[in-house]
């Protein structure tokens, strides 16, 4: 009490003004530091980095964050740390916007380093819009052209000789099996075995040709028969060639170049009726006594594949009847009309032909071969590779049809190389065999021999040289890919369709 009475009265003084200069900067920096620690400042920093297009902005710690994480030294430093703290610098007009060298997204150096999903979606939208207009225009002009007769009609009954021929084709594999059993038991010599196989394979391909030419069958029925006959012929050649090599390794004691694995030893055995039956049904053209197998059949997956196969088969019929047939019927012969008229017809036919070709690829190489493989539990299902990315014609042929490619490499290309034939001649022989088979599959059902399919395959050799030169000249170029798409889809296939159609029509009119 005495102390309070003796104390001098309190003096109310005005708070001192903040000193200018360093003290003011320290206070301002401390206030900004408190604000930038909040979540709103972090969100603003990220928003600024996104708006400015700086990908490294949000991930790089600011100078204040680095100082704050370093411990209490920066806080104890007081005014000196605050004087050099530029925490809000990214929000200022003085902040640098251009921090490093960058390429434009569509430049040649950066175009393949990012996603183009948006452009892909745009292409899909444009294709849907354009094709919707074409569908409406076609329906308004022709109406619905597809009928039930496309699948079966009264004229189909006249093709029963072709059906009987197809059902009798298994005779030739059984004959080849009998010959091999005699050869493995040393009952006939190796030259005699080769002669018997040549006779069987020759009769197997000539027999359907004679039946088709003798009967006035539909083109589609003849094509199916020749397609099956060519597959059987390829399988017979592989069966004979592979067993001939197995006999040489077993009976003559010839040493192989590399040490055999367990799977290789299992494949060095005489053929059985079961192995031949499985091979004739399996989705492969290369014979071996045993194949990799899957553990079980996926029934649900198999049902889905069958449904997709039926849907896309119907889609192919719709495209043929509704789009391709009217264009072809109303066209002129491409080699006899005017140049502009021929170009216009080919371009008009190219779009539905591309759709038909892609549907055919998906149905045959993906759905049908996978259905067979699933039923038979066939393990190796590499029926195709990414042929759509091929930069050369040679690369396309190595990826488009893997069963045929493996057959050609195994039974034509490598045997030619082992017998001293140059690589170029081996490639020519491979394409020649492929061209002959393509010509048989098309010319025989059409009952004409114009060699359009044969020339179409043999002309791939100059294109291989051209696209290989472009690939070596310009590294990582897509010019070869564009040439492939142009010659196969825009020009080549529509031209072949027009040529064969008009040749068939001319033959029919002359026959009448």
TrEMBL record:
Pathway: Glycerolipid metabolism; triacylglycerol biosynthesis; Lipid metabolism
Spans traversing the lipid bilayer: 119-140, 160-179, 191-213, 219-240, 306-324, 354-376, 425-445, 451-470, 482-502
A cellular component annotation (GO) from this entry: endoplasmic reticulum membrane
Keyword Cell division: no
Record bears the keyword Cytoplasm: no
Keywords (A to Z) from UniProt: Acyltransferase, Endoplasmic reticulum, Membrane, Transferase, Transmembrane, Transmembrane helix
Active site residues of this protein: 438
Membrane-topology annotation of the record: Multi-pass membrane protein
Tree of life domain: Eukaryota
Record-level GO BP terms: triglyceride biosynthetic process
Compositional bias annotation for Low complexity: 70-80
Location of region: Disordered: 1-26, 46-80
Single GO MF annotation: diacylglycerol O-acyltransferase activity
Subcellular location: Endoplasmic reticulum membrane
Family membership: Belongs to the membrane-bound acyltransferase family. Sterol o-acyltransferase subfamily.
Full protein name: O-acyltransferase
Lineage: Eukaryota, Viridiplantae, Streptophyta, Embryophyta, Tracheophyta
């Amino acid at each position: 009490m005495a102390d309070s009475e003796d104390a001098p009265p309190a003096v109310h003084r005005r708070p001192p003004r903040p000193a200018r200069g360093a003290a003011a900067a320290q206070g301002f920096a401390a206030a900004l530091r408190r604000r930038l620690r909040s979540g709103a400042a972090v969100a603003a920093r990220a928003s600024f980095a996104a708006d400015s297009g700086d990908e490294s902005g949000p991930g790089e710690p600011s100078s204040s964050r680095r100082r704050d994480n370093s411990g209490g030294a920066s806080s104890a430093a007081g005014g000196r740390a605050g004087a050099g703290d530029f925490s809000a610098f990214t929000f200022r007009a003085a902040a640098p916007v251009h921090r490093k060298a960058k390429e434009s997204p569509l430049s040649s150096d950066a175009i393949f380093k990012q996603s183009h999903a948006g452009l892909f979606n745009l292409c899909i939208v444009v294709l849907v819009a354009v094709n919707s207009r074409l569908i409406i225009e076609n329906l308004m002009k022709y109406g619905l052209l597809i009928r039930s007769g496309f699948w079966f009609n009264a004229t189909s009954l006249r093709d029963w000789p072709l059906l009987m021929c197809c059902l009798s084709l298994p005779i030739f594999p059984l004959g080849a099996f009998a010959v091999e059993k005699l050869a493995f038991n040393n009952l006939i010599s190796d030259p005699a075995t080769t002669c018997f196989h040549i006779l069987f394979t020759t009769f197997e391909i000539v027999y359907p040709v004679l039946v088709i030419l003798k009967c006035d069958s539909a083109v589609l029925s003849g094509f199916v028969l020749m397609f099956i006959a060519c597959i059987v012929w390829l399988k017979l050649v592989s069966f004979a060639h592979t067993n001939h090599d197995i006999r040489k390794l077993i009976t003559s004691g010839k040493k192989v170049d590399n040490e055999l694995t367990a799977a290789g030893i299992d494949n060095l055995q005489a053929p059985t009726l079961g192995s031949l039956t499985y091979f004739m049904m399996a989705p492969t053209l290369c014979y071996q006594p045993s194949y990799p197998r899957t553990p079980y059949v996926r029934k649900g997956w198999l049902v889905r594949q069958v449904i997709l196969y039926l849907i896309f088969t119907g889609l192919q019929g719709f495209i043929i009847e509704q789009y391709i047939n009217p264009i072809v019927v109303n066209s002129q012969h491409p080699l006899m009309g005017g140049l502009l008229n021929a170009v216009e017809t080919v371009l008009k036919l190219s779009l539905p032909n591309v759709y038909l070709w892609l549907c055919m690829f998906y149905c045959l190489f993906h759905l049908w071969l996978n259905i067979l493989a699933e039923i038979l539990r066939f393990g190796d299902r590499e029926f195709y590779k990414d042929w759509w990315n091929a930069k050369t014609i040679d690369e396309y042929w190595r990826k488009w049809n893997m069963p045929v490619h493996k057959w050609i490499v195994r039974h034509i290309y490598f045997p030619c190389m082992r017998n001293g034939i140059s690589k170029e001649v081996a490639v020519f022989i491979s394409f020649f065999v492929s061209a002959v088979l393509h010509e048989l599959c098309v010319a025989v059902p059409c009952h004409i021999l114009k060699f359009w399919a044969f020339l179409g395959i043999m002309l791939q050799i100059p294109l291989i040289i051209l696209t290989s030169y472009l690939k070596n000249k310009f590294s990582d170029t897509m010019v070869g890919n564009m040439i492939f798409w142009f010659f196969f889809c825009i020009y080549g296939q529509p031209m072949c369709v027009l040529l064969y159609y008009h040749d068939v029509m001319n033959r029919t009119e002359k026959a009448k």
